[in-house]
């Protein structure tokens, strides 16, 4: 089982913790992680883009000029795609970008990302996060204590709404609960802070 150090919010080491090998010690599968990221980004797309075909554009009901005798090309509507103000050919229409992925594969992607954080020493386990006040500067001070100012930092807590609210005002910093953990955030943020209670919850769900 992989062992990592535990810290308090001042940045001081307080001990060690053994992590579940089936969650934090799996073989990193980059292909599955890539598929999971593409799926997440695709599922976030609204797909509400739309263009009008010649049948949807307003107007164009009357034939502009007679068929023969004018010397000009024959035309039946001013809303032809060849005309300015006409319809669009092969334009986008509302659609779903949803991608399916087996639950086991999605969980493997998250496990791979967590294991990669352990392997690269970018996962830090905090005993707990007790803020002196519900202020953004308190979370900023934690980051400064670890000398991670300017880094992309992700906090994972066991549903601590105070930390989530305080962290969202800092650029490049995000806090989520264990239920909101996802593959994109794990790969996007370079430093990962996880509380002990969150570690237990993650191991319970993914183990």
UniProtKB/TrEMBL annotation:
In the record, biological process GO terms are: translation
Please list where the region (Disordered) is annotated.
Answer: 43-78
A single MF term (Gene Ontology): rRNA binding
Domain of life (superkingdom): Bacteria
Basic residues biased stretches: 60-71
Is Ribosomal protein there in the keyword field?
Answer: yes
Q: Any transmembrane segments, and where? A: none
Keywords from the named record: Ribonucleoprotein, Ribosomal protein, RNA-binding, rRNA-binding
UniProt function note: One of the primary rRNA binding proteins, this protein initially binds near the 5'-end of the 23S rRNA. It is important during the early stages of 50S assembly. It makes multiple contacts with different domains of the 23S rRNA in the assembled 50S subunit and ribosome. Forms part of the polypeptide exit tunnel.
Q: Which NCBIfam families match?
A: rplD_bact
Task: Please give the subunit comment from the record.
Answer: Part of the 50S ribosomal subunit.
Q: What family name appears in the similarity comment? A: Belongs to the universal ribosomal protein uL4 family.
For this entry, the protein name equals Large ribosomal subunit protein uL4
């Amino acid at each position: 089982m992989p062992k990592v150090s535990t810290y308090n919010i001042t940045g001081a080491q307080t001990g060690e913790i053994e992590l579940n090998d089936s969650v934090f010690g799996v073989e990193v599968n980059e292909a599955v992680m890539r598929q999971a990221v593409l799926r997440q980004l695709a599922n976030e797309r609204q797909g509400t883009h739309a263009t009008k075909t010649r049948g949807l554009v307003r107007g164009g009901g009357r034939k502009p000029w007679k068929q023969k005798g004018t010397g000009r090309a024959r035309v039946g509507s001013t809303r032809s795609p060849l005309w300015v103000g006409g319809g669009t050919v092969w334009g986008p229409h509302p659609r779903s970008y949803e991608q399916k992925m087996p639950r086991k594969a999605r969980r493997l992607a998250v496990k791979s990302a967590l294991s990669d954080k352990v392997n690269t020493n970018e996962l830090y386990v905090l005993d707990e996060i007790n803020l002196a006040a519900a202020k953004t500067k308190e979370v900023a001070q934690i980051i400064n204590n670890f000398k991670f100012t300017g880094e992309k930092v992700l906090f994972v807590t066991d549903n601590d709404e105070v930390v989530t609210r305080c962290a969202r005002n800092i650029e490049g910093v995000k806090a989520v609960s264990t239920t909101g953990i996802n593959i994109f955030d794990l790969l996007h943020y370079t430093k990962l802070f996880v509380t002990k209670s969150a570690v237990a919850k993650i191991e319970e769900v993914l183990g």
